[in-house]
Amino acid sequence: MPPKKLTLVLEPEPEPTLQSTANMGSIRMTDESLTVLTQSYNPVSFTTEGMMKSGGMFYKISEKDIRILKKLGQGASSIVHKGFFTQKNKFVAVKKINVFERETRHQMLNDLKALCDSANAVPGLVSFYGAYHVPESGQISIVLEYVDGGSLADVLQKVGKIPENVLSKMTSKILTALSYLHREKHMVHRDIKPANILMSLSGEPKITDFGISAFIDSTLAQCNTFLGTVTYMSPERINNAAYSFPSDIWSLGLALVELATGQYPFDATEGPLQLMIHVLQEDPPLPPAGQFSEEFRDFVRVCLAKEPHRRPPADALLKHPWIAKFANDPVDLKAFMRCCHNPYDKLDEIAVVFAFNYYALLDGGPAKVADLAPLYSKQSTLRYDGDSAVGSSSIISKLSSVATMHAGFKVTHQLDDVQCQPLGADGSALVNVSGRLVTPAAGALPQHYNEVFVLSQFQPGEYYVAHQVLRLCK
């Protein structure tokens, strides 16, 4: 059972009254709970230890499980950070949302409804690991899969245009995710665009940002709300008419033209109103004949049909000749995504994984310290607060005595910061760790320390500790 701490519970939202305000009218607070009222969702409770859905499903994850590393970006409704999930030994994206703002709260609930019921194996969707409440800041933190290649908008900036065979392979995977969202989740994304399709360095596209998505009761139901990015909005939405899943197909078709040609196909320089007129009155923009295959032009043509009922659903588009044309093409999406590889980002990740695993083993006692032996060579050196050791066996002997002493007093390492910088073309790096030695003894203050590691490579991707210096801060 989750701990009984500050919770956020969702209940049917009352009609607004004169006493309510834009931000606080649907929140009730007591000393022990914070209750958010909504018309659309079943109860979801957030504690500092995780999130519980109605039906008893508990996602256990807390602030202490996540080490925030750096800010990735900021939108209208959230701030996204890169973090390290210590229990899973993996990098994650942490979306921080202010729960006291009604609009951002609604977008958070959309994200949760879209992702937390989805199996992590659903191709083309970011994985959801959990969410937790941070009472001091009034924020909910949603922990998601970290997708390391950036968005398709980022990819486009690097390459200028995406080759047609690469784009077909990507589109096949995107359509699989859209088919799941439409058929299984009954969800209209409403904001499909290059910036909302992430790419992993392994070549896997992932749809993200479900904040303005709409959930409808059946595949025959329709939406009426005017939300989304106007640049990718379908004609029926611009006309403020009822719309449904075909509006996402229009957005995808427009995004594909942009990704293939390197530029947005309509004139957007005259402002949103004139852009909407272009979309409504001009013929759908097709990739130029002679530069692209007729199969691709036809694929875009059916996606950009002005009448929504003429746009095929996502699962039907998976059978389109353009998708089939490149199904057996030898192009490697992983090789293509090397354009987004940043060796410094990878070095930072190596440093973080190394540091957290190193101290986890050191805190595991003398029996675990032996597992650190492969990190050292015969030439490795250690200076531990004045003491010196050279060579793997001597260093492990010293670390074993440290681990024995720490185990006797139940001392553990708490990491505050991990910094990394490259040292040269050979791939070596300097890792600087700041942290505290913490003991549960009553009245004992934490002992701050700073430790520096020089990591060198045996061969590309395989590191050992060449030099190591620890200094206890007095």
TrEMBL record:
Keywords: ATP-binding, Kinase, Nucleotide-binding, Serine/threonine-protein kinase, Transferase. InterPro entries: Kinase-like_dom_sf (IPR011009), NTF2-like_dom_sf (IPR032710), NTF2_dom (IPR002075), Nuclear_transport_factor_2_euk (IPR018222), Prot_kinase_dom (IPR000719), Protein_kinase_ATP_BS (IPR017441), Ser/Thr_kinase_AS (IPR008271). Its EC number is 2.7.12.2. Residues 350-472 form the NTF2 domain. It is an enzyme of class 2 (transferase). It catalyses: L-tyrosyl-[protein] + ATP = O-phospho-L-tyrosyl-[protein] + ADP + H(+); L-threonyl-[protein] + ATP = O-phospho-L-threonyl-[protein] + ADP + H(+); L-seryl-[protein] + ATP = O-phospho-L-seryl-[protein] + ADP + H(+). Belongs to the protein kinase superfamily. STE Ser/Thr protein kinase family. MAP kinase kinase subfamily. This is mitogen-activated protein kinase kinase. It comes from Gonium pectorale.
